Amino acid sequence: MVSSEFGIPKIVLNPRRFEGQVAVITGSAQGIGQVVATLFAEQGARVVLLDINIEKLEEVKRTLVGRGLEALFEVCDLTDEDQVHRTVDAIVKLNGRIDIFAHVAGIYPAKPLLETTTLEYRKIFQVNMDSCFFLTQAVLPYMQKRGYGRIINTASTTIVKPEPGLSVYVASKSAVAGFTKATATEAGPGVTANCVSPTLTVTETTLGFEHTSAAFEPYVNLQCVKRSCLPQDVAHAIMYLASPEAEFITGQVFGIGGGSFFA
């Protein structure tokens, strides 16, 4: 955790920062996505939780609504093109708009290249990249029509600092980063597209994998900031990119690695 003993100023949230805005967050049933959704809600946005796990979605929504915050959810298989378009259309029909779209959902498998099957390869690309394509195609027309929107996708620091066992994962996240840059060139006035690129982040999922839970200490040793990356670190970067203040920033990949690399 971030400690106040080092004189780090307290983070102060503005409960009206995203007031009146609709923020759609994928992967929001748990992990980084849940923290992102919570921060948006705490700052006045109506959040739409998007995930495939209905039980956890209901739990997150119940928690947020119980605090007096605005939250809805939609169950969606992000690898299903038709389902993605139907879900986005339904969100706009119900809420009238989508101001912010943060795509956090993804999978992080580790397997040596020569042991990876074609089926596994395709699954990783379906979840990490195909979903990004489907969602952007579904969301972007609504943003372009209104002349305002913020698209934030999620890559990984491994795209500039690959590791053994992550060849297909790195390829999929590199595709997301490149796709986001290209999206920015077609987004149009008032609509930006950017990408956050986190290092290994402390979540229930990463702590549950033997290959990742053992990697936190070596990661920290390589960083300038000597602590592990937390979901809040990623979420606060997304908050900035989603804000009106970031209107002059588009097509960028923001490294969130504690100084483990310098692009």
From TrEMBL:
<protein>
    <recommendedName>
        <fullName>3-oxoacyl-[acyl-carrier protein] reductase</fullName>
    </recommendedName>
</protein>
<dbReference type="GO" id="GO:0016491">
    <property type="term" value="F:oxidoreductase activity"/>
</dbReference>
<comment type="similarity">
    <text>Belongs to the short-chain dehydrogenases/reductases (SDR) family.</text>
</comment>
<dbReference type="InterPro" id="IPR020904">
    <property type="entry name" value="Sc_DH/Rdtase_CS"/>
</dbReference>
<dbReference type="Pfam" id="PF13561">
    <property type="entry name" value="adh_short_C2"/>
</dbReference>
<keyword id="KW-0521">NADP</keyword>
<dbReference type="InterPro" id="IPR002347">
    <property type="entry name" value="SDR_fam"/>
</dbReference>
<dbReference type="InterPro" id="IPR036291">
    <property type="entry name" value="NAD(P)-bd_dom_sf"/>
</dbReference>
<keyword id="KW-0560">Oxidoreductase</keyword>
